[in-house]
Amino acid sequence: MTSISRRLASVDAFRALTMFLMIFVNDLWSLKQIPGWLEHAGKMDDSLGLADTVFPAFLFIVGLSIPFAIRAREAKGASRNSTLIHILTRSFALLVMGFFHVNLEEYNKSAALLPKPWWQIGITIGFFLIWLDYSPRLARWKKQSLRAAGIVLLIVLALIYKGGGPEEPTWMRPHWYGILGLIGWSYLIGAIIYLLSGDRLGLLIAGFVFFLGFNIADQAGWLDLLDPVRSYFWIVGSGSLPALTMAGVIVAVLYRRLSEKGKSVQILPWLALLALITLLAGFALRPLGGISKIRATPSWVLICTAISMAFFLLLIFVMDIKGRQRWMEWLKPGGTSTLTAYLLPYFHYAIYNLLGVGIALPLVLRTGGIGIVKSLIYAFTIIIITGWLERRRIRLSI
Predict the structure, then answer these.
(1) Distance (Å, rounded) from C-alpha 251 to C-alpha 377?
(2) Which residues in the chain land under pLDDT 50?
(3) Which residue, of 105, 221, 375, 393, is most buried by count of CB atoms within 10 Å of its CB?
Protein backbone atom coordinates (compact mmCIF):
# COMPACT_ATOMS: atom_id res chain seq x y z
CA MET A 1 0.00 0.00 0.00
CA THR A 2 1.36 3.44 -0.87
CA SER A 3 2.10 6.04 1.76
CA ILE A 4 -0.59 8.31 0.33
CA SER A 5 -3.32 5.68 0.60
CA ARG A 6 -2.17 4.74 4.11
CA ARG A 7 -2.34 8.37 5.21
CA LEU A 8 -5.81 8.72 3.79
CA ALA A 9 -7.03 5.59 5.58
CA SER A 10 -7.31 7.48 8.86
CA VAL A 11 -9.12 10.37 7.14
CA ASP A 12 -11.65 8.02 5.49
CA ALA A 13 -12.13 6.19 8.79
CA PHE A 14 -12.73 9.47 10.62
CA ARG A 15 -15.34 10.46 8.03
CA ALA A 16 -17.03 7.05 8.14
CA LEU A 17 -17.24 6.89 11.93
CA THR A 18 -18.51 10.46 12.12
CA MET A 19 -21.20 9.69 9.54
CA PHE A 20 -22.20 6.59 11.49
CA LEU A 21 -22.55 8.67 14.67
CA MET A 22 -24.48 11.38 12.82
CA ILE A 23 -27.06 8.85 11.62
CA PHE A 24 -27.21 7.39 15.14
CA VAL A 25 -27.80 10.68 16.96
CA ASN A 26 -30.28 11.81 14.30
CA ASP A 27 -32.35 8.73 15.13
CA LEU A 28 -32.44 9.38 18.88
CA TRP A 29 -35.69 11.33 18.48
CA SER A 30 -37.45 7.98 18.04
CA LEU A 31 -36.37 6.73 21.50
CA LYS A 32 -37.70 7.11 25.04
CA GLN A 33 -35.89 7.26 28.37
CA ILE A 34 -32.31 7.46 27.15
CA PRO A 35 -29.37 9.12 28.98
CA GLY A 36 -29.25 12.87 28.54
CA TRP A 37 -25.54 12.80 27.70
CA LEU A 38 -26.35 11.16 24.36
CA GLU A 39 -28.50 14.06 23.18
CA HIS A 40 -27.99 17.76 22.49
CA ALA A 41 -27.65 19.95 25.55
CA GLY A 42 -30.33 22.64 25.98
CA LYS A 43 -29.88 26.12 24.56
CA MET A 44 -29.02 27.69 27.89
CA ASP A 45 -27.16 24.69 29.33
CA ASP A 46 -23.45 24.86 30.03
CA SER A 47 -22.75 21.28 29.00
CA LEU A 48 -21.89 18.95 26.16
CA GLY A 49 -23.72 15.87 24.93
CA LEU A 50 -22.48 13.29 22.44
CA ALA A 51 -24.76 14.78 19.77
CA ASP A 52 -23.08 18.16 20.30
CA THR A 53 -19.69 16.75 19.24
CA VAL A 54 -20.72 15.04 16.00
CA PHE A 55 -21.33 18.08 13.78
CA PRO A 56 -18.06 19.80 14.80
CA ALA A 57 -16.24 16.52 14.14
CA PHE A 58 -17.73 16.51 10.66
CA LEU A 59 -16.54 20.09 10.04
CA PHE A 60 -13.10 19.06 11.30
CA ILE A 61 -13.02 16.15 8.82
CA VAL A 62 -14.12 18.53 6.06
CA GLY A 63 -11.01 20.57 6.86
CA LEU A 64 -8.83 17.45 7.05
CA SER A 65 -9.93 16.42 3.58
CA ILE A 66 -9.34 19.77 1.87
CA PRO A 67 -5.52 19.67 1.52
CA PHE A 68 -5.53 16.05 0.34
CA ALA A 69 -8.32 16.68 -2.18
CA ILE A 70 -6.77 19.83 -3.63
CA ARG A 71 -3.31 18.26 -3.81
CA ALA A 72 -4.82 15.24 -5.59
CA ARG A 73 -6.37 17.55 -8.18
CA GLU A 74 -3.05 19.34 -8.66
CA ALA A 75 -1.31 15.99 -9.16
CA LYS A 76 -3.76 15.26 -11.99
CA GLY A 77 -2.87 18.57 -13.66
CA ALA A 78 -5.92 20.60 -12.62
CA SER A 79 -5.39 24.37 -12.78
CA ARG A 80 -6.12 26.71 -9.89
CA ASN A 81 -9.09 28.15 -11.78
CA SER A 82 -10.64 24.73 -12.40
CA THR A 83 -10.12 23.86 -8.72
CA LEU A 84 -11.81 27.10 -7.70
CA ILE A 85 -14.77 26.28 -9.96
CA HIS A 86 -14.90 22.80 -8.41
CA ILE A 87 -14.97 24.34 -4.91
CA LEU A 88 -17.73 26.78 -5.87
CA THR A 89 -19.77 24.02 -7.51
CA ARG A 90 -19.56 21.73 -4.48
CA SER A 91 -20.45 24.55 -2.12
CA PHE A 92 -23.42 25.56 -4.25
CA ALA A 93 -24.74 21.98 -4.29
CA LEU A 94 -24.57 21.74 -0.49
CA LEU A 95 -26.25 25.13 -0.11
CA VAL A 96 -29.09 24.13 -2.43
CA MET A 97 -29.71 20.89 -0.54
CA GLY A 98 -29.47 22.69 2.78
CA PHE A 99 -31.97 25.33 1.59
CA PHE A 100 -34.54 22.69 0.68
CA HIS A 101 -34.01 20.84 3.97
CA VAL A 102 -34.49 24.03 5.98
CA ASN A 103 -37.80 24.68 4.27
CA LEU A 104 -38.79 21.07 4.82
CA GLU A 105 -38.78 21.92 8.55
CA GLU A 106 -41.19 24.82 7.90
CA TYR A 107 -43.54 22.83 5.64
CA ASN A 108 -47.20 23.90 5.91
CA LYS A 109 -49.09 20.61 5.84
CA SER A 110 -52.52 22.23 5.60
CA ALA A 111 -51.79 24.70 2.78
CA ALA A 112 -49.40 22.64 0.63
CA LEU A 113 -50.55 20.71 -2.43
CA LEU A 114 -48.42 17.67 -1.58
CA PRO A 115 -48.26 15.86 1.76
CA LYS A 116 -44.94 16.60 3.45
CA PRO A 117 -43.54 13.02 3.10
CA TRP A 118 -44.07 13.09 -0.68
CA TRP A 119 -42.37 16.49 -0.94
CA GLN A 120 -39.49 15.11 1.13
CA ILE A 121 -39.14 12.06 -1.12
CA GLY A 122 -39.37 14.28 -4.20
CA ILE A 123 -36.56 16.64 -3.25
CA THR A 124 -34.34 13.70 -2.25
CA ILE A 125 -34.93 12.04 -5.63
CA GLY A 126 -34.10 15.38 -7.25
CA PHE A 127 -30.79 15.51 -5.36
CA PHE A 128 -29.90 12.02 -6.56
CA LEU A 129 -30.81 12.75 -10.17
CA ILE A 130 -28.69 15.92 -10.26
CA TRP A 131 -25.64 14.86 -8.29
CA LEU A 132 -25.47 11.11 -8.89
CA ASP A 133 -22.05 9.76 -9.83
CA TYR A 134 -23.14 8.46 -13.21
CA SER A 135 -21.21 5.69 -14.91
CA PRO A 136 -18.80 6.92 -17.62
CA ARG A 137 -20.31 4.24 -19.86
CA LEU A 138 -23.70 5.98 -19.73
CA ALA A 139 -24.35 8.08 -22.81
CA ARG A 140 -23.83 11.78 -22.25
CA TRP A 141 -27.34 12.68 -23.40
CA LYS A 142 -28.81 10.30 -20.87
CA LYS A 143 -26.80 11.89 -18.05
CA GLN A 144 -27.84 15.36 -19.12
CA SER A 145 -31.47 14.28 -19.42
CA LEU A 146 -31.51 12.74 -15.95
CA ARG A 147 -29.84 15.80 -14.42
CA ALA A 148 -32.27 18.07 -16.25
CA ALA A 149 -35.15 15.97 -14.88
CA GLY A 150 -33.77 16.45 -11.37
CA ILE A 151 -33.51 20.21 -11.83
CA VAL A 152 -37.06 20.41 -13.20
CA LEU A 153 -38.32 18.28 -10.30
CA LEU A 154 -36.73 20.61 -7.72
CA ILE A 155 -38.11 23.68 -9.50
CA VAL A 156 -41.64 22.25 -9.58
CA LEU A 157 -41.46 21.23 -5.92
CA ALA A 158 -40.17 24.69 -5.04
CA LEU A 159 -43.01 26.37 -6.96
CA ILE A 160 -45.73 24.40 -5.19
CA TYR A 161 -44.12 24.77 -1.77
CA LYS A 162 -46.05 26.31 1.10
CA GLY A 163 -44.48 27.04 4.45
CA GLY A 164 -45.18 29.20 7.49
CA GLY A 165 -48.22 29.07 9.72
CA PRO A 166 -51.72 27.89 8.76
CA GLU A 167 -53.08 31.45 8.62
CA GLU A 168 -50.12 33.02 6.77
CA PRO A 169 -48.56 30.57 4.31
CA THR A 170 -45.18 31.61 2.93
CA TRP A 171 -42.89 30.51 0.12
CA MET A 172 -39.39 29.06 0.56
CA ARG A 173 -37.13 31.25 2.68
CA PRO A 174 -33.58 30.95 4.08
CA HIS A 175 -34.55 30.58 7.74
CA TRP A 176 -31.04 29.20 8.25
CA TYR A 177 -28.66 27.24 6.05
CA GLY A 178 -29.39 23.72 7.28
CA ILE A 179 -26.69 21.20 8.21
CA LEU A 180 -25.62 20.70 4.60
CA GLY A 181 -25.66 24.44 3.96
CA LEU A 182 -23.49 25.12 7.01
CA ILE A 183 -21.07 22.45 5.80
CA GLY A 184 -21.14 24.10 2.36
CA TRP A 185 -20.22 27.55 3.71
CA SER A 186 -17.50 26.13 5.97
CA TYR A 187 -16.05 24.08 3.12
CA LEU A 188 -16.12 27.09 0.79
CA ILE A 189 -14.26 29.30 3.27
CA GLY A 190 -11.72 26.65 4.27
CA ALA A 191 -11.04 25.47 0.71
CA ILE A 192 -10.54 28.97 -0.69
CA ILE A 193 -8.18 29.89 2.15
CA TYR A 194 -6.15 26.74 1.53
CA LEU A 195 -6.21 27.28 -2.24
CA LEU A 196 -4.72 30.75 -1.74
CA SER A 197 -2.39 29.90 1.15
CA GLY A 198 -1.20 26.42 0.23
CA ASP A 199 0.77 24.64 2.94
CA ARG A 200 1.95 27.85 4.64
CA LEU A 201 1.04 27.00 8.20
CA GLY A 202 1.45 30.58 9.41
CA LEU A 203 -1.35 31.80 7.14
CA LEU A 204 -3.58 28.84 7.96
CA ILE A 205 -3.12 29.36 11.70
CA ALA A 206 -3.87 33.06 11.20
CA GLY A 207 -7.13 32.06 9.53
CA PHE A 208 -8.07 29.84 12.47
CA VAL A 209 -7.18 32.58 14.97
CA PHE A 210 -9.22 35.14 13.01
CA PHE A 211 -12.38 33.01 12.99
CA LEU A 212 -11.98 32.03 16.63
CA GLY A 213 -11.34 35.67 17.51
CA PHE A 214 -14.46 36.71 15.61
CA ASN A 215 -16.44 34.11 17.53
CA ILE A 216 -15.04 35.35 20.86
CA ALA A 217 -15.78 38.97 19.94
CA ASP A 218 -19.35 38.15 18.98
CA GLN A 219 -19.93 36.13 22.14
CA ALA A 220 -18.53 38.97 24.24
CA GLY A 221 -20.87 41.47 22.59
CA TRP A 222 -18.09 43.49 20.98
CA LEU A 223 -19.72 43.15 17.55
CA ASP A 224 -23.19 44.34 18.55
CA LEU A 225 -22.61 47.53 16.59
CA LEU A 226 -22.71 45.37 13.44
CA ASP A 227 -26.23 44.09 14.14
CA PRO A 228 -27.75 46.14 11.26
CA VAL A 229 -25.75 44.11 8.72
CA ARG A 230 -25.92 40.76 10.52
CA SER A 231 -28.88 39.58 8.44
CA TYR A 232 -27.18 40.48 5.15
CA PHE A 233 -23.47 39.83 5.65
CA TRP A 234 -21.97 37.68 8.35
CA ILE A 235 -19.48 34.86 8.91
CA VAL A 236 -21.40 31.60 9.21
CA GLY A 237 -21.74 30.49 12.82
CA SER A 238 -20.18 33.79 13.92
CA GLY A 239 -16.82 32.30 12.96
CA SER A 240 -17.25 29.09 14.97
CA LEU A 241 -17.82 26.72 12.04
CA PRO A 242 -14.97 27.97 9.79
CA ALA A 243 -12.71 27.78 12.86
CA LEU A 244 -13.49 24.06 13.23
CA THR A 245 -12.80 23.52 9.53
CA MET A 246 -9.54 25.48 9.62
CA ALA A 247 -8.38 23.38 12.57
CA GLY A 248 -8.78 20.30 10.36
CA VAL A 249 -6.87 21.96 7.51
CA ILE A 250 -3.97 22.80 9.84
CA VAL A 251 -3.75 19.26 11.23
CA ALA A 252 -3.84 17.78 7.71
CA VAL A 253 -1.00 20.02 6.50
CA LEU A 254 1.10 19.29 9.58
CA TYR A 255 0.50 15.56 9.18
CA ARG A 256 1.39 15.50 5.50
CA ARG A 257 4.56 17.53 6.04
CA LEU A 258 5.83 15.05 8.61
CA SER A 259 4.72 12.06 6.52
CA GLU A 260 6.55 13.29 3.44
CA LYS A 261 9.72 13.42 5.52
CA GLY A 262 9.18 9.87 6.74
CA LYS A 263 8.35 11.12 10.23
CA SER A 264 4.69 10.09 10.48
CA VAL A 265 5.10 8.89 14.07
CA GLN A 266 6.11 12.40 15.14
CA ILE A 267 2.55 13.61 14.48
CA LEU A 268 1.39 11.75 17.59
CA PRO A 269 3.11 13.90 20.28
CA TRP A 270 2.46 17.07 18.28
CA LEU A 271 -1.22 16.27 17.91
CA ALA A 272 -1.50 15.24 21.55
CA LEU A 273 0.07 18.55 22.59
CA LEU A 274 -2.23 20.54 20.29
CA ALA A 275 -5.27 18.69 21.63
CA LEU A 276 -4.24 19.36 25.23
CA ILE A 277 -3.60 23.07 24.61
CA THR A 278 -6.89 23.41 22.75
CA LEU A 279 -8.80 21.59 25.49
CA LEU A 280 -7.30 23.80 28.22
CA ALA A 281 -8.07 26.92 26.17
CA GLY A 282 -11.65 25.72 25.77
CA PHE A 283 -12.14 25.39 29.52
CA ALA A 284 -10.38 28.71 30.08
CA LEU A 285 -12.97 30.39 27.84
CA ARG A 286 -15.88 28.60 29.50
CA PRO A 287 -16.92 31.72 31.48
CA LEU A 288 -17.60 33.39 28.11
CA GLY A 289 -21.00 31.86 27.41
CA GLY A 290 -20.26 28.37 28.71
CA ILE A 291 -20.10 25.23 26.57
CA SER A 292 -22.97 25.34 24.10
CA LYS A 293 -23.40 24.01 20.56
CA ILE A 294 -26.68 25.85 20.01
CA ARG A 295 -25.07 29.19 20.94
CA ALA A 296 -21.82 28.22 19.15
CA THR A 297 -19.62 29.40 22.02
CA PRO A 298 -15.80 29.58 21.79
CA SER A 299 -15.52 26.98 24.54
CA TRP A 300 -17.63 24.53 22.50
CA VAL A 301 -15.45 25.17 19.43
CA LEU A 302 -12.17 24.52 21.23
CA ILE A 303 -13.29 21.54 23.30
CA CYS A 304 -14.81 19.83 20.25
CA THR A 305 -11.66 20.59 18.26
CA ALA A 306 -9.60 18.92 21.00
CA ILE A 307 -11.89 15.88 20.97
CA SER A 308 -11.59 15.62 17.17
CA MET A 309 -7.79 15.92 17.35
CA ALA A 310 -7.58 13.18 19.97
CA PHE A 311 -9.87 10.92 17.94
CA PHE A 312 -7.85 11.52 14.79
CA LEU A 313 -4.63 10.80 16.70
CA LEU A 314 -6.02 7.40 17.69
CA LEU A 315 -7.00 6.61 14.10
CA ILE A 316 -3.57 7.63 12.78
CA PHE A 317 -1.91 5.29 15.25
CA VAL A 318 -4.21 2.33 14.57
CA MET A 319 -4.72 2.66 10.81
CA ASP A 320 -1.78 4.56 9.33
CA ILE A 321 1.07 3.55 11.61
CA LYS A 322 0.01 0.06 12.70
CA GLY A 323 -1.79 -0.60 9.40
CA ARG A 324 -4.81 -2.19 11.04
CA GLN A 325 -7.56 -1.23 8.64
CA ARG A 326 -9.71 -4.31 8.07
CA TRP A 327 -11.87 -3.61 11.14
CA MET A 328 -13.23 -0.54 9.33
CA GLU A 329 -14.47 -2.38 6.25
CA TRP A 330 -18.02 -2.62 7.59
CA LEU A 331 -18.25 1.16 8.00
CA LYS A 332 -16.21 2.16 4.96
CA PRO A 333 -19.19 3.23 2.76
CA GLY A 334 -19.95 5.97 5.27
CA GLY A 335 -16.61 7.53 4.39
CA THR A 336 -16.66 6.98 0.64
CA SER A 337 -20.35 7.71 -0.04
CA THR A 338 -20.98 10.09 2.82
CA LEU A 339 -23.66 12.24 1.23
CA THR A 340 -25.59 9.17 0.13
CA ALA A 341 -25.57 7.83 3.68
CA TYR A 342 -26.74 11.18 5.00
CA LEU A 343 -29.70 11.41 2.60
CA LEU A 344 -30.99 7.82 2.78
CA PRO A 345 -32.80 8.35 6.12
CA TYR A 346 -34.88 11.06 4.41
CA PHE A 347 -36.43 8.30 2.30
CA HIS A 348 -37.00 6.07 5.32
CA TYR A 349 -38.55 8.68 7.60
CA ALA A 350 -40.83 9.91 4.80
CA ILE A 351 -42.06 6.39 4.06
CA TYR A 352 -42.54 5.81 7.79
CA ASN A 353 -44.75 8.92 8.02
CA LEU A 354 -46.74 7.88 4.95
CA LEU A 355 -47.49 4.46 6.40
CA GLY A 356 -48.42 5.89 9.80
CA VAL A 357 -47.49 5.14 13.36
CA GLY A 358 -49.10 1.73 13.08
CA ILE A 359 -45.84 0.35 11.74
CA ALA A 360 -43.79 1.72 14.64
CA LEU A 361 -41.69 -0.72 16.63
CA PRO A 362 -43.08 -1.71 20.03
CA LEU A 363 -42.24 0.81 22.74
CA VAL A 364 -40.04 -1.71 24.54
CA LEU A 365 -37.71 -1.73 21.51
CA ARG A 366 -37.51 2.07 21.55
CA THR A 367 -36.82 2.57 25.24
CA GLY A 368 -33.61 2.83 27.24
CA GLY A 369 -30.67 0.61 26.41
CA ILE A 370 -32.67 -1.55 24.00
CA GLY A 371 -33.65 1.59 22.12
CA ILE A 372 -30.02 2.69 21.91
CA VAL A 373 -29.10 -0.67 20.40
CA LYS A 374 -31.99 -0.22 17.94
CA SER A 375 -30.59 3.16 16.79
CA LEU A 376 -27.09 1.70 16.47
CA ILE A 377 -28.50 -1.10 14.32
CA TYR A 378 -30.39 1.50 12.30
CA ALA A 379 -27.20 3.49 11.63
CA PHE A 380 -25.37 0.31 10.67
CA THR A 381 -28.23 -0.68 8.33
CA ILE A 382 -28.06 2.68 6.54
CA ILE A 383 -24.31 2.19 6.06
CA ILE A 384 -24.87 -1.34 4.72
CA ILE A 385 -27.48 -0.07 2.24
CA THR A 386 -25.10 2.73 1.24
CA GLY A 387 -22.41 0.16 0.50
CA TRP A 388 -24.84 -1.97 -1.51
CA LEU A 389 -25.82 1.08 -3.59
CA GLU A 390 -22.19 2.13 -3.96
CA ARG A 391 -21.28 -1.23 -5.47
CA ARG A 392 -23.97 -0.57 -8.07
CA ARG A 393 -22.61 2.93 -8.65
CA ILE A 394 -25.57 4.63 -7.02
CA ARG A 395 -23.88 7.30 -4.97
CA LEU A 396 -23.86 11.07 -4.89
CA SER A 397 -20.69 12.87 -5.86
CA ILE A 398 -20.23 16.62 -5.70
Answers:
(1) 32
(2) 1-7
(3) 375
